[in-house]
Amino acid sequence: MSECIVETRYGKVQGYQQGAICVWKGIPFARPPMGARRFRPPEPAEPWTGVRPTTAFSPMAPQVAEMGASMVGAIGAERVVDPRPISEDCLYLNIWSPAADQGKRPVMVYIHGGAFTIGSASDPWYDGASFAERHNIVVVSLNYRLGILGFVYLKELAGAASGYSGNCGLLDQIAGLRWVRENIEAFGGDPDNVTVMGESAGAMSIAALLGMPAARGLFKRAILQSGAAGDLPTGAEATRVAQALLARLGLDPARVEALAEVPVESLLKVQPELGREFGGVRAFSPVIDGETLPQHPLAMLAQGSAKDVAVLLGTNRDEWRLFALMGGGAQINEALLQQLFGEAAQRVLALYTAAREDHSPEFAWIDLMSDLVFRIPAIRLAEAQVRQGAPVWMYRFDWKSPAFGGVLGAAHAMDIPFVFNTLDVELSRLFTGTSPSRQALADLMHASWAAFIRTGNPTIPSLPEWPRYDLERRATLIWDEAPSLAEDPQGELRALWERVRLVF
């Protein structure tokens, strides 16, 4: 146990030995964002004396537990409310390392997904042990504020001098990355070789971090899985959400500070209502506030905000199937189709339908929504980085799950347990089934991601040639039982979006 005692800049922490590695859980990287610190940027953790035990995960950020259960319930599994505790005192991180020996190993910092309203760094399929044991990588996972507490925008109502930020969740992530830069060497990591990785809202967070001045220099590489720089609210749009929040709580708009005294249970009660009214994930997501995020991330990337950052990114072939199941089916939204493509709307839907072997308009709509929300934003981020000369690798995950009669296909989040090599976790088995053939693909993806974390290049000898992404070949690695390389996959459908402004 003594080899898992590490001195940080704030005090000593004691983890525990897990096989050949050391694990630390629940290390504070910021002060509890409670009371007067609600809705404000995180402050550095308070130092402590003695040795602090760090052997158990911290509480999750406040969230509506039933929302997480709905994803599992949508595919016919038993709905179970997450029993883990929640608390506003949630800004903690976890570390898996081969040894606390100042060995200067590559570091991966993971940012979890969950539509900016649910999830936690303690979710079991984000376990970093395999990266540490098999690939000599130091893994860090961190919590950040979610929902109202993480992303409500109060600055325009309270005034610039109030100190409020609508991007508290992102600033929490930056605070965690700063902590890593200051302390990770003592845990066996290299502070100059950090890769930030995330899926879904975690990847969308990374897209924002790529454009945030405060995040520059805190990471060398980025992995974005099923999330990129989509449509983000402006300060004016986010202010309308804040006004609706105050109205629902019966608070005077001139006394925004009263929100600091509202019980967290009351905030969580109205949060789903606000989400439904203001477009789901867009109600509580990063905001272009002109300060912490000066412009849309794509505009910042075009100005070279992350030109030195190598990027690995991609999407799953059937992303939207999960959300269609959660919503009760794939109903074609004619108004949205018209908004996106105007007079060409029906022709576009016909092309998506013709591109499918089953010629199903409903599944064609799922493909179109997968492109709108995930694939096209990823391609646009890749294009922006390529134009800056940054190294970019693109993939698509096509492995179709046999679970639940195959209804999920290669749905959103299906790739997570393959990347982390956590196929034996209960939720992973639920989503992917139990076929032994899964492990071979997990071994390849896990090793490829590890290679990128180590060197900035995901190619490994057991894969086909995988060149960098460019605007001519658009080389894309297709992850399936037999991985293959494709040039500009679904290129005819991609071209339909070239002049379309992405909206949700």
TrEMBL record:
This is Carboxylic ester hydrolase. The keyword Hydrolase applies. Gene3D superfamilies: alpha/beta hydrolase. Its EC number is 3.1.1.-. One of its GO terms (molecular function) is carboxylic ester hydrolase activity. Belongs to the type-B carboxylesterase/lipase family. InterPro entries: AB_hydrolase_fold, AChE-related_enzymes, CarbesteraseB, Carboxylesterase_B_AS, Carboxylesterase_B_CS. Residues 4-483 form the Carboxylesterase type B domain. Pfam families: COesterase (PF00135). It comes from Thermogemmatispora tikiterensis. Keywords: Hydrolase.
